[in-house]
Specification:
heterotrimer; A alpha+beta (787); B alpha+beta (268); C alpha+beta (164); A: 787 residues; alpha+beta; Aldehyde Oxidoreductase, domain 3; Aldehyde Oxidoreductase, domain 4; 3 domains; seven-stranded mixed β-sheet; 19 helices; 22% strand; B: 268 residues; Uridine Diphospho-n-acetylenolpyruvylglucosamine Reductase, domain 2; Enolase-like, domain 1; five-stranded antiparallel β-sheet; four-stranded antiparallel β-sheet; globular
């Protein structure tokens, strides 16, 4: 390992600009003549629009234009799409209602887009939006996930009972048979609370149109600019693909919420041509709460069957997944193929059957949020396993160990073929680091101080590196999920890597450069990573699902192999040796068995000046591209242990210790990987203790600001003890599994298992706020109390 | 934010005159409630009168009997004032629990008291310490000043100039923060002065800050947490939101009262 | 319009502004100092923290006109002579940032913390003092480490601290 190679904790190259305020985020861009967009949003959760009078707004100072859904329709601008087709049990396709960028006829959630004002200043646009007169016929709303299918309210005409799909996975008969044999069945009812992603940078879009070239440019807060361009051109139709440049510059966190193609960027690109001015929109936090795609929101009943020795026989799950008022870009895949295939967890479960009803409600669309389906699956499995162990009177750690998968590859009953892992190794290490042996002593000490202490495990697995294109295609994905890379070697020997992955906090400019430096033997500062601009970078799929290492870097590795192969050809000519005798090692192309060698830079120069070979023998230049399509998902897994202390007087839960032992396969930069784990845990703890989006019965979002929606703060969290075990991933050339979502997946059940351990009963939901825990403590101690 | 006229007088007299001359006025102190409200377009004053440049509104004075704080004194100044730390440490400790460090660099005592937010900390301190709110027109006892949420005895155009706190023998503040907003979900300020004990609760009451006479009477006989045993705060009249309903808030009043008394009692 | 004159990062600035212009808007839009960010509309996230007369404030909750005759330091004014301020260097060294969006406010808050609380900051103090700054990426773990290390470095390098 070199100081900057694979495995080194290299300090990030991108940080110089971020710590000095020189980062460039979308809202930092300003174009000559720029105007501002402000969206008039629905104040009602559900209403028919009788009429919209934009006249009073049009005469307001500074107003350039006011547009409604009719204007988009007149220009034949299509609706927003959902790119993953899910079929119901009966084979029928999911019921996708229309999703216009600006509402037509009806609004379906508070924050739905009714009209847009384009004005000289944002203040003027806001002033004018207040002058638009909308005549609403307010309709009753359906809000609750569990009630959507029985409601008299109908969100979309295409679905009479608000069901988008009744989907299932697994073998029902085999699972029923397993339950019939069971000695013990543990049942659990779970709510996976709705979350608001809240990257600290709100979404933003800046659209520009050049009439001279007919070119459009969109600066946008995107995790996947090429996908945005494809959807905006091929499906929504705002501009031809080759005429639309999408730039996603520095992006201030995404967590899934910036994958999707939203109404606002659609309208900004289109409106820029209409008003012949660049049009900028920057979300404020309230708009972000209302209209960024939310996450989670499941209601689940699950059962686990075991035999008399505590061996798991079968798992049965029924989930209702709230998809909100419209199907967002990848929403349908999240509670289906990103969820149910993970229900085997780390366990050898012979039979699994899962049914999922996706439902419409009058709430913001729900889509992928850090972990996307896998946290929901892990919460089901790990809560159920914990509860089963307790019911059987078994040690939760040992119950898990007894049921771990130990032979690989392992085919689960729910699609996935786990390639490798050593779950017991992570458990052993975590137990030691968490000082589990002395937990009971700590618990007694807490009790002496009048506090309740509990410990909780989460033995999670996820499927990352999404994904083999053929596999996801067969499951309904509208796109392939490979990744692309181009390695451009310059005549001076410096290297630019153009990657289809996008970095919005993950540090690709550093980790990707480490790979290049390691493989080519050149200094890391000779490497530039280019991403986030469709005019510069070849088509790529972007960053989500912890895929940039396993898939994005594998594409780079593949392109680097081609560069080295071409370099050998060049070197063979220059060194007047047979190509087969050229070896590339430590940054030098040498002739085997001799001391004749050329540095990487010399070969690069020779490739470009092309004096030493004929154009008929070899093309000049040194630039290679690659598309890498994985052959399998990757399966990061690990054990997190959370230890809490509860103040029974107030219900306040304090996390006293956090131990994480993860197996991410090969690690490029341990510093960055640890940072990803920390951040993931914080979001998972947020879900478990603090965060929850709440709509009232009329469909108003009660938690529409940081005053009501509780974001994790520094004092809410402990320092984390983070370690790893390593089983290299066999399915990609680098052995990487991915680490971006692990913490968010692992954490919620670890916290709730710890709290329920402390309480001595299972009756607590997320978020386990002080109020909820206080009630649960009272329930534990006063079972007959009226409360 | 809607457009407004901005004025920055340098004397109380100028400010008071301006307030009578221009339409639809709001006084701007630290601005940490008013400006966010204006940004959300929930307030739309035609004129703002910025009180920051009025020298008479600044400064902390200590006498044998009291501490008097200028209305434009920032929370951070109260936190750091050695006079206050020595005479009413509970007041400095309370100020350190307001908002966050950046908010405390801007927010003022006068602004907080005049706003009378039902979850603000200062109203509890004023009430428990039996403060006097001094305006450009008169002096108002805290008991008469706070008149329900966002409602005070202040008349149109009346400006708080100082707040005077009698120095107690011992006092303490216990705050349970709202998980999201960090305002007081329940805050209890208790102060003992001679035989007189006053205990005020903020955050919990649907009508804003209030005193708890039953607790005060019991504490004046025996200033210790166990004096509060058996005193049940009923949930009627308590605030409720998703983070804390009335029953939980009522329960927390008892817990925070005990903790405040414990802290004050430990001051000896 | 109202005229404001102030010193920003050592430079005198005078401009006519609409009174409703926030200090953060003035910095970002008039002066193009885009390192100061906006992350919320309720004065909570702290992405906009700058120093006003040497104290950390939320620039989204201060009017530009209120900053008249004041001295403002933004993240762009922290590094002197092309060398990172010790707190900036500590954030980089300890991986106290990921997406970088909250980072300018975090660093300005951290420097202010040291100015108020000294250089020996324990974990509990740092976490409590970060009350007004939200980060969604790091889980705060490495921010806490960075602030502690940056605080120590500020003492070891007092010249740099005096730059403010």
């Amino acid at each position: 390992m070199t100081a900057t190679g694979i495995g080194a904790p290299v300090r990030r190259k991108e940080d110089q600009r971020f710590v000095t305020g020189q980062g460039r985020y979308v809202d930092d861009f300003n174009r000559p003549g720029q105007a501002y967009a402000y969206f008039l949003r629905s104040p009602h959760a559900h209403a028919a629009i009788r009429s919209i009078d934009t006249g009073p707004a049009l005469v307001m100072p500074g107003v350039l234009a006011v547009f409604t859904g009719d204007d988009l329709a007149a220009d034949k601008i299509g609706g927003l799409i959902c790119g993953w087709m899910i079929h119901s049990k009966d084979g029928s396709p999911m019921k996708a209602g229309p999703h216009p960028a600006l509402a037509q006829d009806k609004v379906r959630y508070v924050g739905d887009h009714v009209a847009v004002v384009i004005a000289e200043t944002l203040a003027q646009a806001k002033d004018a939006a207040e002058a638009i007169v909308v005549d609403y016929d307010v309709l009753p709303a359906v809000v609750e996930t569990a009630e959507a299918q029985n409601s008299s309210v109908q969100v979309h005409d295409v679905s009479s009972d608000n069901t988008v799909f009744n989907w299932h996975l697994g073998d029902k008969d085999a699972t029923d048979a397993a339950f019939a044999q069971a000695k013990h069945v543990t049942k659990i009812d779970l709510v996976n609370n709705r979350l608001v992603p809240n990257p600290i940078e709100p979404r933003a879009a800046l659209g520009e149109y050049d009439p001279g070239t007919d070119n459009y440019t969109l600066y946008t807060t995107s995790q996947n600019p090429h996908v945005a361009r494809l959807v905006l051109s091929a499906f929504i139709g705002v501009a031809p693909e080759h005429k639309l440049r999408v730039i996603a510059p520095d992006v201030g966190g995404g967590f899934g919420s910036k994958i999707f193609i939203y109404a606002e960027e659609t309208v900004c690109v289109w409106a820029a041509k209409k008003v012949k001015r660049p049009v900028k929109w920057t979300s404020d936090r309230t708009e972000a709460f209302l209209s960024d795609a939310h996450g989670r929101d499941h209601v689940t009943r699950a059962e686990l069957a075991t035999d008399d020795s505590g061996k798991i026989l079968g798992l049965r799950v029924h989930t209702i997944a709230n998809l909100g008022a419209y199907l967002s870009t990848f929403s349908s895949s999240v509670p289906t193929y990103l969820y149910a295939p993970l229900l085997s967890g780390q366990y050898d479960i012979p039979a699994i059957y899962c049914e999922v009803d996706g439902v419409y409600t009058n709430t913001a669309p729900v889509d992928a949020y850090r972990g996307a389906g896998r946290p929901e699956a892990t919460f089901v499995v790990e809560r159920l396993v914990e509860k089963t162990a307790r019911e059987l009177g078994q040690d939760p750690a040992e119950f898990r160990r007894r049921n771990y998968i130990t032979q690989f590859p392992h085919q689960t009953p729910v699609i996935m073929a786990y390639d490798t892992g050593d779950y017991a190794a992570s458990l052993d290490k975590a137990l030691e680091l968490a000082d589990f042996a002395n937990f009971s002593e700590r618990k007694r000490d807490s009790a002496r101080r009048g506090r309740l202490r509990g410990i909780g495990f989460s033995s999670y697995i996820e499927a990352c590196g999404i994904a083999p294109s053929q596999a996801v295609g067969s499951l309904g994905a509208g796109v392939g999920l490979w990744e692309s890379a181009e390695v451009r070697v310059n005549p001076t020997g410096s290297v630019e890597v153009l990657t289809g992955s996008h970095s919005h906090g993950q540090g690709h400019e550093t980790t990707f450069a480490q790979l290049v430096s390691d493989r080519l033997g050149i200094p890391i500062d000779q490497v530039s990573i280019v991403h986030g601009d469709t005019d510069k970078v070849q088509f790529g799929m972007g960053t989500y699902g912890s895929r940039s290492g396993a898939v994005g870097m594998s594409a780079i590795a593949k392109a680097l192999d081609k560069v080295i192969a071409k370099g050998k050809k060049v070197a063979a000519h220059v060194l007047e040796a047979a190509e087969g005798d050229i070896e590339f090692k430590d940054g030098k192309f040498g002739v085997a068995g001799t001391d004749r060698a050329l540095g990487f830079g010399e070969v690069a120069l020779q490739a470009y000046i092309a004096h030493k070979f004929s154009g008929q023998d070899l093309e000049p230049g040194l630039k290679e591209g690659a598309f890498y399509d994985p052959t399998n998902f990757t399966f990061p897994a690990g054990v997190h242990i959370c230890e809490v202390e509860i103040d029974p007087d107030t219900g306040v839960t304090t996390i006293e210790r956090w131990t994480a032992v993860d197996d991410f396969g090969v690690i490029i930069n341990p510093m960055i990987v640890e940072g990803q784990v920390h951040g993931g845990i914080a979001q998972g703890v947020g879900q478990a203790l603090l965060e929850g989006a709440v709509y009232d019965q009329s469909g108003q979002l009660v938690t529409a600001s940081f005053n009501d929606y509780c974001m994790p703060r520094a004092a809410d969290l402990p320092s984390f003890q983070v370690d790893v075990t390593v089983t290299p991933c066999p399915s990609n050339p680098l052995g990487i599994k991915g680490c971006g979502e692990a913490g968010a997946i692992a954490a919620p059940p670890a916290v709730i298992n710890a709290i329920t351990d402390a309480l001595g009963h299972e009756d607590i939901s997320m978020p386990a706020t002080p109020q909820a825990v206080w009630r649960a403590v009272r329930k534990a101690h006063m079972p007959m109390a009226a409360e | 934010m809607y457009a407004f006229e901005y004025h920055r007088p340098t004397s109380i007299g100028q400010a008071a005159t301006l307030a009578t001359e221009v339409e639809d006025v709001k006084f701007l102190a630290g601005g940490h409630t008013l400006l966010p409200t204006m940004k959300m377009r929930l307030a739309a004053p035609a004129s703002l009168i910025d009180l920051s440049q009025i020298a008479e509104l600044h400064g902390i004075e200590r006498s044998a009997e009291s501490i008097t704080i200028g209305a434009m004194t920032k929370h951070a100044e109260v936190v750091n004032s050695s006079e206050i730390r020595e005479s009413i440490p509970a007041l400095a400790e309370m100020a350190e629990l307001i908002g966050d460090p950046h908010v405390r660099h801007r927010g003022t005592i006068g602004g907080s008291v005049a706003n009378n937010d039902p979850s603000a900390d200062y109203p509890a301190a004023c009430l428990a310490l039996n403060a006097t709110i001094i305006t450009n027109k008169r002096e108002i006892a805290a008991d008469d000043f706070f008149q329900g949420i966002f409602t005070t005895a202040l008349e149109e155009g009346e400006i708080i100039t100082r707040v005077s706190f009698p120095i107690p023998s011992r006092a303490a503040y216990a705050k349970f923060r709202h998980p999201a907003s960090r305002y007081a979900l329940v805050g209890v300020f208790v102060a003992e002065r001679g035989n007189d004990v006053r205990l005020a609760v903020t955050g919990a009451g649907a009508d804003g800050v209030f005193r708890v006479p039953e607790m005060e009477q019991s504490l004046s006989r025996h200033f210790a947490p166990d004096a509060l045993e058996g005193i049940i705060i009923p949930p009627e009249g308590m605030n409720g939101d998703i983070h804390a309903d009335a029953a939980y808030r009522a329960h927390l009043v008892g817990i925070m009262a005990r903790r405040a008394v414990q802290a004050a009692a430990s001051r000896g | 319009m109202t005229t404001v004159s102030l010193t920003v990062n050592g430079q005198s600035v005078t401009a006519d502004v609409d009174p409703r212009t926030l200090l953060v808007q003035f910095l970002r839009e008039n002066l193009r100092l885009t390192g100061t960010h906006v992350g919320c509309d309720t004065s909570q996230c702290g992405a906009c923290v700058v120093h006003l007369n040497g104290q950390a404030v939320k620039a989204c909750t201060v009017l530009a006109v209120q900053a008249d005759a004041s001295v403002v330091t933004t993240i762009e004014g922290l590094a002197q002579g092309g060398e990172l301020h010790p707190m900036q260097a500590a954030f980089r060294e300890h991986h106290g940032l990921q997406c970088g969006y909250c980072t300018p406010g975090m660093i300005m808050a951290a420097v202010d913390m040291v100015n108020r609380k000294g250089s020996n900051l324990d974990e509990q103090t740092i976490r409590a003092e970060l009350e007004g700054n939200l980060c969604r990426c790091t889980g705060y773990h490495n921010i806490v480490k960075a602030v502690a290390a940056g605080a120590q470095a500020m003492v070891q390098n007092p010249v740099r601290q005096a730059a403010e």
